[in-house]
Amino acid sequence: METLGIGIVGYGGFGPFLHNAWSQVGGVEVRAIADADPSRKSDSPARFTTEWAELVADPGVDIVSVVTPPATHAEIAIAALRAGKHVLVDKPLATTLEDARRVIEERDRCGKVAAVNFMLRFHPLVETLVAWGRSGLFGSLRHAAVENVAQDESLPPDHWFWDTAISGGILVEHAGHFTDLVDAVAGRHPATVLGAHGTRSERQEDQLLATALYHNGLIATHYHEFSRPRALETTSIHLVFQLAQVDLKGWIPLEGEIFAMVDEEGRKALQALPGWKTLEEAPVNPEGNGQVIRSAGNPFQVASIMRGTFALKDAKLDVYTACLQSMMADVAAAVRDPKHPVRVPLEDGFHALDTALRATEAARDARTD
User: Fold this and answer.
1) How far apart are CA 148 and CA 222, in angstroms?
2) With 70 as the cut, is the pLDDT of residue 367 above it?
3) What does the longest C-alpha to C-alpha distance in the chain come to?
4) Which residues are bridge partners to 261 per DSSP?
5) What's the CA angle centered on 240, arms 322 and 121, to 5 degrees?
């Protein structure tokens, strides 16, 4: 198997972490790194340059991994595709829909592999939830609520994160992981998006809320705030299916709780979750014959009510790295085999960006100050 050369554009805080993850994927090798700051040159044998265009032109690079500030993603991705490279773009795909379309059009014109970094899609718990959504095991998804209150200790007022011309704002820069997760579980994208926001200062818009309405009756809310000390960071993901309520903890979820009405197939699905512990279980019909119940107007044959918890045994950093590596391996597989479609194509990045931009625009139109 031919070794694929990786080039990483952007070597700030996330770049070295990504480098480590790429280095543990079979059949690939990090051969070049580009960053405008020469002090970020690493001890790696990979070639280093302060000009990303030099990396894009490097004949030893097959896949360009873009991890620069968001406003530069589209320009670098398009240049890489035109240079005959495959591309993995960190989220967001771009900061405008026009730029996102340009990347997609260039991918189609060049016929290269291109994917967006929604690594949560490779998380084992998320994969399970997506499978449940597609199969209808617990009925359809009716409500989703994501609440992410993050630290701003590493984000001083002059950080590029607060400059919406560079980051696109909180929902564009950060929330894409979660809007994409809900879309993946629901199997569709929102029809209408509303928004609200809060500002700490003229430069720091530190609270944003998106409410997404879907044609099938799903209502999702995404609240993101950057204001807390690091020790008080919290993320919760609340999913309500017709027959089950699922609560995940952490932006890289490691544990959670489920309350559900199940038939035998549903019971086995819960028991198959990692670290499953049954807290309570009771038959719907004491006579043991099951029962037909209705939820959102639909009939379901159920046998019992279950509540339980689940938990991954691995540490957060290990789970995070494993998700990245699975995503990277997926991109590498698509490069090697034209019949292998990437699991998170650019279109998914486009839809997440569309949701973020619509919510942000609606929030600013409704401002109260």
Assistant:
1) 8
2) no
3) 73
4) 305
5) 20
